[in-house]
Amino acid sequence: MVPMFRFYLLVAVFLSNFAFAQELNLPVAKNFFLDSQQVWKKKVPILIMFSIPDCGYCKKVKEDIISPMADLKEYQDKVIIRHINANSFDEVTDFYNEIVSHNEFAFKYAVNFFPTVMLVDNYGIVLEKVLGVANEDYYWTDLDELIDNSILKINKQLSAKL
Q: What pTM, to 2 d.p., does this model score?
């Protein structure tokens, strides 16, 4: 009787961890070249969160801010959210249609402090940047303001006349 209870308890713990992992909606960066075309189409910036494993603040920002943002319709219409694991050698297509690792991508942006959140335009040029977590209570509000500023900058760039 006891071994069967342990088995069901183990299954319940496993499934609850799996369900929690599935709830975290943080799109992994795969192709910034294609994402950049969406910037033109939607006139919204790309938000790139750079993190590393075992970083407490990275985990907090992912779970409490970026992932919930990715789930909200309001933010799906105003920003393209992508995640880069700076320790990973998984491949990503950069803004110039070249295949690099997540690690190389982070290196090209000189990211060496985590978490780092950048808002970039269709060329991958940084419009706004947040290093670390200065104030947990206002992080979402401050990031929302930077997203709005980035949208204004992109609209200004795309409406410029020669």
A: 0.82
